[in-house]
Amino acid sequence: MKSLNKKMALIATGVALLAVLLIFCGMQLLSMPDPKGIPILEYHMVQAVDPDRAYEYNVPPDEFEAQLDYLEQEGYTTISIRDFLRAKKGLQDLPDKPVILTFDDGYKTNYTELLPILEKRGLKATIFVVVNDIGKERYMSWDQLRDIQHRGVEIGSHTANHLPLGKMDKTQARDEMRLSKLLMEWNGMDTIYTLSYPNGSYSNELVAMLKEEEYLAAVTGDSGLNDFDTDPYLLHRINIPHPMFGITEFKWRLMKGKLMTRLGIFQHKS
Ligand SMILES: [Zn+2]
Asked: Can you give the pTM of this predicted structure?
């Protein structure tokens, strides 16, 4: 009985020491200056009424505006992926704290509800469109797409059919990349040079293929920040789903992205 008590005491001391160590390490990490790098935020839709399906992908406008207010308070300025790529080549300067806003899938409310917010605040953004969904009930039409691009929103490809590229044969994957780009360009849109991998599915082979198909950059769903050493075909993004805990959750998600970069976990270097 006595030795059992002794064992329990030892375990308790061990656990307490471990907890102190973890708190110490956590505080050290939090007190360090922010790691350098550009956050790319991954959104889907911003609309007042949550959709029946994919509710978790909607950030209601009031929550979205609170997030934008916070970014502004923190000194962030929005840039496009094109700005980032041009700055990498030394062709333009970037603001002190750039941030990139991206929206996947090409929902109709990107045009009706998101665009007015962006224009009101003078913000840049990038939308990745699934080409075979253009004009369907929940998605933007060709006219809306051409108009939104004309008004300064950067448009990229989210492939033709939104299937995971890593799970199909190579010819089909190449078609998804090539045809989505060509169809948009044939339909009167400016050059398409960025891609968002459906379901975050990528591989080294796909990266090589994107270069051959004249894409300049692609975004993943892997968390982290981006700098000029990040592989431009495997850019990290910080996912922003429907918030359950308001702005606190948004801050935590940003912090997680910074932490992944600081610790070098799953970070893609070129
Ligand atoms: Zn998607």
From this structure: 0.89
